Amino acid sequence: MKVAVAGCCHGALDKMYETLELLQRRHNVRPDLLLCCGDFQAVRNEADLRCMAVPAKYRHMQTFYRYYSGEKKAPVLTVFIGGNHEASNHLQELPYGGWVAPNIYYLGYAGVVRFRGVRIGGISGIFKSHDYRKGHFECPPYNQQTIRSAYHVRNIEVFKLKQLKRPIDIFMSHDWPRSIYHYGNKKQLLKMKSFFRQEVESNTLGSPAASELLQHLKPTYWFSAHLHVKFAAFMQHQTNSKDELPKATKFLALDKCLPHRDFLQIIDVDHDPSAGDSLEYDAEWIAVLKATNSLVNVTQASWTMPENNGLHAKWDYSVTEKAIKEVLEELNHDLKIPCNFTLTAACYDPSKPQKVQPVHTINPQTTEFCAQFGLTDINNRIQQAKEEASVQGEHEEEEEEEEVDSTGSAEEPSEYNTDNSGLSSINPDEIMLDEEGGDEDLSTCSVDPSPDHPPDFSTSFSDIRIMPDSMAVSSDDATDSTNEELEKSGASKHVEEKSLNERPLKRIGGNENGNSGIKKIKRRNQAIYAAEDKDKTE
């Protein structure tokens, strides 16, 4: 079957789907599935805009709300992961995945699904070492820290994915797996993006968590986005035993969704002709979720996943064939994901702008999913933790109020506003992506639909390299890199605010300093879009 893969969408759904229609008209190519590698921006209304960690000038409604409201419907089944420019409050409603609009499915914090027998996995967000070992504790309304930490990858999701034993056909991550640039045209990459050089040469560009997953899962295809440049690589994996067949991964990073940019790719994937056209649950993944349910954590405390180090009674949470069979029996061998999309927030109305406040919402899709498989509803657990903390903290709050009264001043709870005052202009999660030189293709293949050059994925991969042991990234990388990451981000300490936890839970029923030399990676909110205005006028 034909699978279309898109880079950072940034809410431009109309443009993405129009490009697919153009492919069909010019080349008679109609994809059966569309995958998006993050920065999808499923923004439903003004409140969702407030939950995106971008400066006010970049908070645009875009076109997702039309698909959310039902005014439009995605012409092709769309599956996406989260990035670092998202309406985090919306996606947080679906920690295990779910429909954000008819025919548009979010994979959750991490997830695996099947379509026509093709096994598709993904992990949302970007890697930051200082949040990696925390639980999913954030909830709206967010403060200046949690609005960013909400989309940071957590070790629990990586741990779950590492329990998988069955082969993965396609895997998606937003940021690149660390070291992947050593398996493609690195010289050309640094020619276009010279400010990547320092991190590439020190082997610190990208996510060590994603690299760990790449080595473990060894998927046939791995797609990423985030750095706004197209890049292809081919990694031949080492085998663990003489009997193991050699495996290789074709990696492709996509550009952002803008005119005249290579943001879309079409590939042919072997599938099961006898399989239906519905998106399906993956039985092994459901079994893993059930097996790891006791590990769910919704606190800010750093914690370590079970390891075979003599400190844990159990460290292997991979599942048996029996456990997988039990899942199948629970579902009567019907793995079809129910089309149970439900509106959980008011939809944006251009004729009637509203000042909507972000609220913590439990999505009925998540409620149903957790009830069906006996899983912990993370958002419900967060709310319980908030209530318990509120009761325990009443006495302390009274003492603080007395101290404030004696001084005659107090720091007001900092609600997240629509202007830029609520956010520092420096965001440790952003990367300066200046456009150096032209838009020369790093993968040697064309994705821009033109009559003379139809998309060809097979020419993207020409280098085959064996990954040396010295490049292996251990799970300890996250800990060892903490100081480095904090230095890069310009944050000497992690400020924790107490505010913004007073709003009640709403339950819905029913249905990152440049110098004069080589540019360095700069992490700024505005910088990631530095070239967009220019691009749009070309």
TrEMBL record:
Keywords: Hydrolase, Iron, Manganese, Metal-binding, mRNA processing, Nucleus, Zinc. GO terms for cellular component: nucleus. Residues 395-405, 431-442 have a biased composition (Acidic residues). GO terms for molecular function: metal ion binding; RNA lariat debranching enzyme activity. Residues 485-505 have a biased composition (Basic and acidic residues). Its cofactor is Mn(2+); Zn(2+); Fe(2+). Its main location: nucleus. InterPro entries: Calcineurin-like_PHP, DBR1_C, Dbr1_N, Metallo-depent_PP-like. Residues 235-379 form the Lariat debranching enzyme C-terminal domain. One of its GO terms (biological process) is mRNA splicing, via spliceosome. Residues 415-427 have a biased composition (Polar residues). It holds the Pfam family Metallophos. Residues 385-538 are annotated as: Disordered. It is found in: Nucleus. Belongs to the lariat debranching enzyme family. PANTHER family: LARIAT DEBRANCHING ENZYME, RNA LARIAT DEBRANCHING ENZYME. This is DBR1 enzyme.
